[in-house]
Amino acid sequence: MTRKFMLAAAVLGGLVLAGAAQAQGGAAAAIAAGTVGEQADGYLGIAGTVGADVRAEVESINIKRRAVYTDLAGKRGVTVQDVAAATGCQTLSSRVKPGQVYRVGGGAWQTKGAGAISLPAYCSTAGQ
Q: In Å, how far are 34, 40, 66, 93, 110 from 23, measured between CA atoms?
């Protein structure tokens, strides 16, 4: 990941998580309950059993995130996947709170404790 890519993600992270794609209602409750969580790929994932309403809300949030990622990728000259992954790095490192679940890569869902989340190797270029 390049500096340009990581800077794009830094801007995007705040937009995605504080803007229209923020979890509300059932998805917010599911995040608190540990049945929905953030993933390193920049999208929410289903970590447990949820109702159709929560599943639909998660899908809607992810569609909104992808739209923002696509827009920013075009403006920055990077891939959508790169923007999404950079945002995932930022989200896992700064926005997942203790007790919330998260997933790195295709691994198992984990619950964040008091310490830092062990991030994928590509996240180490953040801020360079």
A: 13, 17, 15, 18, 19
